[in-house]
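User:
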Amino acid sequence: MTIQPHIPVMLAEVLEALAPRDGGLYVDGTFGAGGYTTAILEAANCRVIAFDRDITAIRRAAPVEARFGERLSLVHAPFGAMERHVRRLLAGADGSPPEGPLVDGVVLDIGVSSMQLDEAERGFSFLKDGPLDMRMSAAVDPGTGQAVETGFSAADFLNTAGEEEIANVIYELGEERRSRAIARAIVRRRAERPFSRTKELADLVLAVFHGRKEGGHHPATRTFQALRIHVNDELGELAQGLAAAERLLRPDGRLVVVSFHSLEDRLVKAHLAERSGKEVHGSRHLPQQSIKVSAPSYRIVNPRPFTPCQGELDVNPRARSARLRAAVRTEAPVWVAR
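Assistant: Predicted structure:
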């Protein structure tokens, strides 16, 4: 099977918003195929600490590592854990991690990569039959050297969760209005035999919609999206990453986030609006806690999200739902829970 190369979305806009400078330190929270990392390192004589929870992305990074040497540090971890790893990598001679803000920019490209979608065995796509998996994280088996997926797969969830929980996940994370009908059909089907393949689920959802597409899209689109977000706790990971970026960024440091669906974009918008002093309501997908309101910790660069130009969409149709939001860190302290 031919894997299509991953095209970094809105690369020019990301670089303009991030504004890499010589001597700076930047975090790429989703290394993927290295598009953003490579562009940042080419734009300035700086250093990048890049993260990816997918071990296959880390293994494919050898050419980028060889090209940039010590200017690039790769970490096999989700970006929600970036603070701990950045402080560890910057530890002094005595091993003690430095405190306070440390980096000049953080870029996050949220969601699934083109490479993951195109690999049928990963189970992300309803267009290719494969194991109903969808997990992004994997550990390496020390005995075989092979990647071993960790945690619950999408099949595990569908085969064990209650009907109401399945319906709620599909409705809340997929914004699917027929979530209850889909959940009922899933529970009926698994009583006959458990789910194991992506085609089984895609065909079931198609049957619920009587074989009709909606708005030109396969009716399983929202269900697959919801399961992927749930299995990988993507919104929880995003909330952790945003909080870590606020703690790590120096004054005038840049945060750039590229999201691909409304739930992600709403969460980013709510976080930045709150931290810039525009509102304090937050998002239902952010941790529900009381925040001590203080001076704005961010200045928003673009109140309305940037979107791809038509020229980019002609080359990369998968970029059509991308939204870019950027903000600049102020000198104000990090907002903390009361």
